[in-house]
Specification:
Strand content: 25-35%
Shape: globular
Number of helices: 4
Number of strands: 6
Structural class: alpha+beta
Helix content: 25-40%
Strand order of the largest sheet: 3-2-1-6-5-4
Order of helices and strands: HHEEEHEEEH
Length: about 160
Amino acid sequence: MEPITPKTRQYNTLCAQLESLLAGERDTVANLANAAAVLYHGLPELNWAGFYLVKEGELVLGPFQGRVACVRIPFDRGVCGAAVREDRVQRVADVHAFPGHIACDCASSSEIVLPLHDGEQVAAVLDMDSPHLNRFDGEDQAGLERCARIIERACDWLRP
């Protein structure tokens, strides 16, 4: 059995908080708002944590915590667009080196974006930014993937 690292313990706590907070509530906006607050205040070294919803062929800003954000993101641009296009997690150590990066906030240096699904379709993305290079590692990705599954199951996804 592998030892539980402090970061794994932290994600266990966040997942337990999300499970408890989202239990019995199906409203997508309410759940995403609370999830953004849990993640933003529960993880260090972030300047943004939130969601973009898939609407009419693009990503539209949803509930978030942190600095200002872009309102609309086409699927063919940025880290969030790549997460939808490729339907896979995008973990970027240096966003300034990412082709097509959209600088919604010039203070962001690294980013992780996770697709959230309604059945087989991407319904939204969970986007987290940090002012520090290489903020997100494999442990963060695994922990955030667990959080993402909890959020997916809790939402009655909005339709465009």
